[in-house]
Each structure stands twice: as C-alpha cells, then as structure tokens.
Amino acid sequence: MGQVYGIYRGDNGACFYIGATRGSAEERFRQHLAASRCGYHHNIHFQNIVRKLGESRVWMRVLSDTGESDTFDTERLLIQEAEASGQPLVNRYHKDGRRPPMRPRRRRTEGLRERVTSALGGLHQGRLLPGVPQDTRHLFAEALAGMLKTIEAIESQTESS
C-alpha cells in the first residue's frame, strides 16, 4: 500500500508540498522534518519553510491511500491539480513530469579530513556539531570569537599590570 500526503503551513493553512511514499506517511513526514532540522533536506525551499515556521507549525495530512503501483502517478496528478489551481508548491519536477535526479552528497576526501582534524587540534570526530542548524552554528562561532577577544583583552591587561 502507498500513501500520497500533503504538508501544510501553519501560518496560513496552505499546502506547500505533496509527496508520496510506499510506506507510512507519518514516518516520511518525520524524515522530512529531521532532514530539514539537520540542514540536509533534498529540497532547499521545503527546508527553508520548515526552519522559518518551526516544526510545530508544519503539519501533514494523508490525501490518498493508493495501491503500490499507482502511488507516484497519483502524486503527480495531485501536484498538477494543485499547480493548475494556483497553489504554490515547492515540489521539484521536470516539465515532462519526471523527478529530477537526487544530488549525491559530496564525500570528504581523506586529505580534507586530515586537514580539518589538524586544524581543530584533533577534536574533529565526524561532523561538526551534528544536528545543529547552520544559523545556530554561526551564532555559536560569533560567541566563541567574542569570548576569545575578551580573554585576549584580559590577558593583555594582566601582562601590562
């Protein structure tokens, strides 16, 4: 069995994404939210909406329970109907109705991994701050930079005394 689902904005109730899964729509919705939270969603527009509104202001509704063979055809038809009615969706499709190929994630080379590890003094174990959104990382970096300036100022005052 498959399911076609819509994901809606909590601020205006508009559907902004229509998706399909051969599994559970609830589980697929959780996967969308997790990918958006970590900054790895395959659709940057979807990710931006979720991050702007917050996960609690985005919700999902099953639009159709389908047989496994016609799940993606039903999804395509519902997307076409929504777009024909002027509903702004963030789904990405080619004009002929095919999904665009997924972009493969670039893997870090061993050389890059070694340079990052040495630059961090051996502290790097996998991803930096896993699960933390980029804007939070930026704020964290700014706070650390401010702390370092404060420490340097205190040290320079202590040395001059």
How are the SSEs ordered, and which strands pair?
Blueprint: E1 2-9, E2 15-21, H1 25-38, H2 44-53, E3 58-66, H3 71-84, H4 110-119, H5 134-160
Antiparallel strand pairs: 1-2, 1-3
Describe the structure.
By secondary structure, the protein is of the alpha+beta class. It folds into two domains: about 1-85, GIY-YIG endonuclease (3-Layer(aba) Sandwich), CATH 3.40.1440; about 110-160. It is built from five helices and three strands, in the order E-E-H-H-E-H-H-H. It has helices at about 25-40, 45-55, 70-85, 110-120, 135-160, and strands spanning about 1-10, 15-20, 60-65. Strands 2-1-3 form a three-stranded antiparallel β-sheet. Strand 1 (about 1-10) and strand 2 (about 15-20) form a beta hairpin. Helix 1 (about 25-40) packs across helix 2 (about 45-55). The longest helix is centred in the last third of the chain and has 27 residues, at about 135-160. It is elongated. The N and C termini lie far apart (about 75 Å).
What is the overall silhouette? elongated
**How many helical stretches?**
5
Number of strands: 3
CATH superfamily of the largest domain: GIY-YIG endonuclease
Radius of gyration: 22 Å
Name of the CATH first level of the largest domain? Alpha Beta
Spatial separation of the terminal alpha carbons? 76 Å
Tell me what portion of residues adopts beta-strand conformation: 5-15%
CATH topology of the largest domain: GIY-YIG endonuclease
Spatial strand order of the main sheet: 2-1-3
Helical content (DSSP H or I, runs of 4+): 40-55%
Low-confidence stretches: none
Mean pLDDT: 80
CATH-derived architecture of the largest domain:
3-Layer(aba) Sandwich
User: Class by helix and strand content?
Assistant: alpha+beta
Biggest sheet statistics:
3 strands, antiparallel
